[in-house]
Amino acid sequence: MAEDVRVSADGTRVLVVSSGAPSLEEMGRTLSKIAELRRDYKIGSVLVDSRARRGQPSVAEIFAGGKLLAETLGPGIRIAVLVSDVTSDHTLFEDVAVNRGGTVAFFSDEKLAAQWLSRASP
Question: Where are the alpha helices (DSSP H) in the chain?
Answer without folding.
Answer: 24-41, 59-73, 88-99, 110-118
